[in-house]
Design brief:
By secondary structure, this protein is α+β, with helices and mostly antiparallel strands. The protein contains six helices and 13 strands. It folds into two domains: 2-178, Bira Bifunctional Protein, Domain 2 (BirA Bifunctional Protein, domain 2, 2-Layer Sandwich), CATH 3.30.930.10; 187-234, Roll (SH3 type barrels). The chain has helices at residues 2-10, 53-60, 68-83, 143-147, 153-168, 173-178; strands spanning 18-22, 25-29, 36-39, 44-52, 92-95, 99-102, 105-115, 118-126, 187-193, 201-211, 217-220, 225-228, 231-234. α3 crosses α5 (153-168). The chain is globular.
Amino acid sequence: MLEARRAAAADSTIASGTVIRAGYQTSGRGRLADRRWETEAGEGLLFTVIFTKPDLDARLKGKPFTLLPLLCGLAAARAVEDYLNEAAVSEIRIKWPNDLLAGGKKICGILCEAAGDFVYAGIGLNLNQTYFPDGHRRPAASIRMFTGSTADGDDLLLRILGRLSSVLGSSSWQADINSRLYGINSPVKVLAGLAEESGNFEVIQGILSGVSDAGAVLIDSGDKIVPVYSGELKV
């Protein structure tokens, strides 16, 4: 993400759709300030797609930029589903707002940011790790842990980019996401608003009924449907 920002700052005419890929990661960060990790060489597929705002707007066909993390998640989910077609993985799920789960374990994280004339879509997919240290909020897994063989990062990169190109202009994205939404129709709690660690959030509880056409998670509290646009989902 940092190198993508540097590349765009150095060349304001950089082509929309340019991909910056990292071989390893020493300062990985997530949506919240304390979510950081490292990735050794060959263990992860780590890349950022640079979009110009006019190009992304055209690709989204009127959909808001706030949908980008979910659409990236859908593209990654489809690509991983294809790749794991013969592996014993019962389900690939999108966890709102920006994670991908396989067999209930996190395999992918997504971070989207806008700055100036550009929007950056960062995707980190666990490829070949065979061990994850304790202390993660959710158990993690890698593609290799499901297939038993070394995952091909080049193959998965091309699959994800191809899926992303079609997903951005899709008219069926909402149904496709809801069909893969982790926790749908289950009791959930959402820490809405600012980061959980700040203590400045509202707790909303109810049944997770899906995502809205603006990317909000929809919580059925019993007497009304509450849309939540940012926060932390706990199933």
